[in-house]
UniProtKB/TrEMBL annotation:
This protein's UniProt keywords: Amino-acid biosynthesis, Branched-chain amino acid biosynthesis, Isoleucine biosynthesis, Lyase, Pyridoxal phosphate, Repeat
Necessary cofactors: pyridoxal 5'-phosphate
Organism per entry: Vreelandella nanhaiensis
Similarity remark: Belongs to the serine/threonine dehydratase family.
Name this protein carries in UniProt: L-threonine dehydratase
GO molecular function: L-serine ammonia-lyase activity; pyridoxal phosphate binding; threonine deaminase activity
Reactions catalysed according to its record: L-threonine = 2-oxobutanoate + NH4(+)
NCBIfam families found in the cross-reference section: ilvA_2Cterm, PRK09224.1, PRK12483.1
Source species taxonomy: Bacteria, Pseudomonadati, Pseudomonadota, Gammaproteobacteria, Oceanospirillales
Designated gene of the protein: ilvA
Length: 504
């Protein structure tokens, strides 16, 4: 199968639509990590992602009869744009079914390339089902985003370019993984010619379907899929990609949201390109690999796979970047509620850059302050700050990895209620689109008074809301039953220390 795939890659027809992208050096990163770091610039494709390669190659294999009838795909993202462009160049009718939550910018981009957009369903599965119905009805040909040998062969041309453009030492290539089409193509070609080069897949930790499949030695369906990096938010690795990569990939690394955000900034600093989170995923994995293995003097290449991000999302990405770099510690510190204690706390902290500081009177004996402190990356410096404060007699809670604190508490003003009552706290996530917040509100239970509410639009595909409700302890299970029935993804956060210290 490997040889047949390599032949298909070498015969792939992509350059009538795609361009050969350069490999950019990353001097700042290289110096910081003591390795030569290179970035393959797929963000420079005409559709701002590598997806045009696979889509075009697949379409180039169609018969004249298939082309005359038209093509169809379900996609909310880069595959849709790649397919729309490929179809336009070939003069073929293209229909793209997108979930209704698709950001307007992506719908417009697909329409601008001449494809017909059908908006259907709230999630990808419903859109895909409708696409299959339309295919049966009209005789369209379905163009899959990753689970197809011709799509894989198109993506594999990136591997051909890498080996041709960089003939010197190359120790590892880091590839982002969604459904596995990209890594299958790159791994097949590179391993066939240069088995010494390590191929390392990088996945978002909440959509790590390749890692799960490798561990189980079979494809598995993830129960929940995080959508922060929507380009790679796939619940099951493709069948054809898995057959290829299970013996070719050396390792899979997973990274979290903050690490991806930090990598967006790193790419910007070295190349001035703004990557989407899926596009920066491979660099986040590369950095983690260097930190974990301690390698030095190697040549490591990552693929910046795309740059299709909403501008208003950058605000959120920037906010999380310091955390991803582990350059900011978020701490809750308890100080005495008396004159001079603020000053004493600052003296104990010493000459450190404070990124955030908020305080509100709680009672006559103690106060809790929410403080962000700039620290050196790596965790040791953060630990040193915490130790220093503890040695100074302060009670310190480290909230640096606490999602509730980072998403909501640091933006909430108002503090504690003046009278005591029983409150239960829930954090929700729902697909973002016009009217989604209203929809969410109407579905919230009306039997319990709402005592806290926080929502911020990050320009992301998913909205995040924090809700406090006055729930008598006997009613807790009723609330859980109700919330399970309405089906929004949620977390019960009443015991979270960030809430207990600042809001309860
Ligand atoms: C920007 C970006 N990176 C990576 C991927 C993952 O590619 P694959 O699904 O072939 O693994 C995608 C998929 O759409 C993407 O859009």
């Amino acid at each position: 199968m490997l040889e047949a795939t390599v032949k298909k890659i070498l015969q792939a027809n992509v350059y009538e639509a795609a361009c050969e992208t350069p490999i950019s050096p990353a001097p700042f990163l290289s110096r910081r990590f003591n390795n030569q770091i290179l970035i393959k610039r797929e963000d420079l494709q005409p559709v701002f992602s590598f997806k045009i390669r696979g889509a075009y190659n697949k379409m180039a294999q169609l018969t004249e009869e298939q082309k005359a009838k038209g093509v169809i795909a379900a996609s909310a993202g880069n595959h849709a744009q790649g397919l729309a462009m490929a179809a336009k160049l070939m003069g073929v009718k293209a229909v793209i079914v997108m979930p209704r939550i698709t950001p307007d910018i992506k719908v417009q981009a697909v329409r601008a390339r001449g494809a017909k957009v059908v908006l259907k369903g709230d999630a990808f599965a419903a859109a895909a089902e409708h696409a299959h119905e339309l295919m049966e009805e009209h005789g369209y040909t379905y163009i899959p985003p990753f689970d197809d040998i011709d799509v894989i062969a198109g993506q594999g041309t990136i591997g051909v370019e890498i080996l041709r453009q960089h003939s010197g030492r190359l120790d590892a290539i880091f590839v982002p993984v969604g459904g596995g089409g990209l890594i299958a193509g790159v791994a097949a070609y590179v391993k066939y010619l240069r088995p010494d080069i390590r191929i390392i897949g990088v996945e978002a930790e909440d959509s790590a379907c390749l890692k799960a499949a490798l561990e189980a030695n079979e494809r598995v369906v993830l129960e929940q899929v995080g959508v922060f990096a929507e380009g790679v938010a796939v619940a099951q690795i493709g069948e054809v990609p898995f057959m290829l990569v299970k013996d070719l990939v050396d390792e899979v690394i997973t990274v979290n949201t903050d690490e991806m955000c930090a990598a967006v900034k790193d790419i910007f600093e070295d190349t001035r390109a703004v990557a989407e989170t899926s596009g920066a995923l491979s660099l986040a994995g590369l950095k983690k690999y260097v930190q974990q293995t301690g390698v030095e003097g190697e040549t490591l290449l990552c693929i910046n796979s795309g740059a299709n991000t909403n501008f208003d999302r950058l605000q959120h990405i920037a906010e999380r970047t310091e955390l991803g770099e582990q350059r900011e510690a978020i701490l809750a510190v308890t100080i005495a509620e008396k004159p001079g204690s603020f000053k004493k706390f600052c003296r104990t902290l010493g000459k450190r850059m404070v990124t955030e500081f908020s305080y509100r009177y709680a009672d006559s004996t103690e106060a809790h302050i929410f403080v962000g402190v700039q620290v050196k990356p790596g965790g040791e410096d953060r630990q040193a700050v915490i130790e220093k404060l503890r040695d100074g007699g302060y009670q310190v809670e480290d909230l640096t990895d606490n999602e509730l604190a980072k998403l909501h508490i640091r933006h909430l003003s108002g503090g504690r209620p003046s009278e005591r009552f029983e409150e239960a706290l829930y954090r929700f996530e729902f697909p973002e689109r016009p009217g989604a917040l209203m929809n969410f509100l109407t579905q919230l239970p009306h039997d319990w008074n709402i005592s806290l509410f926080h929502y911020r639009n990050h320009g992301a595909a998913y909205g995040r809301v924090l809700v406090g409700m006055q729930v008598p302890s006997g009613d807790q299970t009723h609330v859980a039953d109700y919330l399970n029935a309405i089906g929004y993804r949620y977390w019960h956060e009443s015991d979270n220390p960030a809430y207990q210290l600042f809001m309860a």
